[in-house]
Amino acid sequence: MKEPGKIKLANIPTPLEEIKFEGKTFLIKRDDLTGTELSGNKVRKLEYLIYQALKEKAEVIFTCGGDQSNHARATAIAAAKAGIKTKLFLWGSDSKAAEGNLFLDKFFGSEISYLNRKNYQEVNEIMFEERDALLRKGKRVFVIPEGGSTTLGIWGYISFIRELQKQVDLKKLEGICTAAGSGGTAAGLLLGAALLNFDLKIYAVNVLYSKEEIFTKIIRLAEGCALDYKLRCRINENNLVILDGYSNEGYKNISGDKLKLIKRFAQASGILFDPAYTGKAFTAYHENFLKKNKGKKIIFLHTGGLFGVFGKKKKYLSVN
Ligand SMILES: Cc1ncc(COP(=O)(O)O)c(C=O)c1O
């Protein structure tokens, strides 16, 4: 097996902490601590993606996401560090008082194209068409599809399993619970565990796509990566469990009940969850595992997203 090349962007290994919350103990893997400006799960994927962009001598990187996309922000910053320009295709609209991730996108000098919800459904076509037009003019463009979730990007979470193996006895573990947006994190975890022959369940909390869609996306990515890199392993579909129903308020919203849990947890632990991903995933983890005292068998993966909180300041402050 030949692992693809990467550059160093993430502060890893991230800590695996044991936390006590409301009488129950659990393990939390702090991928929110992969960095500061560059932080969260996306940084692991970008180590491989930016390496490839540099190898292809890209002058500009295109990527996409919501207007508070952590992935878009992390890409803009990682690319700036690598000396490459970015153009972001964001679902949302411009604001002079941009907060959180959007503020950082602007501050780090990205060019931004805003798309409405309908046009965003065709964002990949839009990015590739624009790339082709620029290619014809001799400009080198590297496109990173949504969430960095390509068969190259998911190496970030294949290698994560090896990191985790040094921190905990994976044979004694039942699974890992994570938020799933584009599905690359869960796909990497699934494939990483399969490659090392660990029978781990990956509990993915779908925040953006339906249960069926995200299941298919994750399996396709994991199998696609195994094929692309000629990895010898069998992916057991039964090891992927989608915890559905935790984003009924919509990707860009968060319910009052979830915010109450986020606040209780923040004030008890000093750890903050974001509104789009980790707040929803932790609600699922709390209900399905923590309350049932399974927190030492199933790890909660904190995938970051801190800057997204600033886009929802008023909502966070309105919670009692
Ligand atoms: C904070 C955070 N957590 C989780 C995810 C989901 O990761 P993936 O897109 O790999 O499913 C994202 C993706 O945007 C994210 O920003």
Q: How many discrete structural domains?
A: 2
CATH architecture of the largest domain, please?
3-Layer(aba) Sandwich
Alpha-beta classification: alpha/beta
Trace the largest sheet across and list its strands.
Answer: 1-2-10-7-8-9
What layout of secondary structure does this protein have?
Blueprint: E1 16-21, E2 24-30, H1 42-55, E3 60-66, H2 70-82, E4 85-91, H3 100-107, E5 111-115, H4 117-120, H5 123-136, E6 141-143, H6 155-165, E7 175-180, H7 184-195, E8 201-206, H8 211-228, E9 240-243, H9 256-269, H10 278-290, E10 298-302, H11 313-317
Parallel strand pairs: 2-10, 3-4, 3-6, 4-5, 7-8, 7-10, 8-9
Antiparallel strand pairs: 1-2
The structure holds pyridoxal-5'-phosphate.
Pyridoxal-5'-phosphate (PLP) binds at residues 40-41, 70-71, 147, 149, 179-186, 274, 277-278, 303-305.
What do you see in this structure?
- The protein has 320 residues and is α/β, with parallel strands linked by helices.
- The protein folds into two domains: 193 residues, Rossmann fold; 106 residues, 3-Layer(aba) Sandwich (Rossmann fold), CATH 3.40.50.
- 39% of the residues lie in helices and 18% in strands.
- It has eleven helices and ten strands.
- It has a six-stranded mixed beta sheet, with helices on both faces.
- A hairpin with a 2-residue loop joins strand 1 and strand 2.
- The radius of gyration is 19 Å and the shape is globular.
- The site of pyridoxal-5'-phosphate has 20 residues, from helix 2, strand 7 and helix 7.
- Pyridoxal-5'-phosphate binds next to helix 2, strand 7 and helix 7.
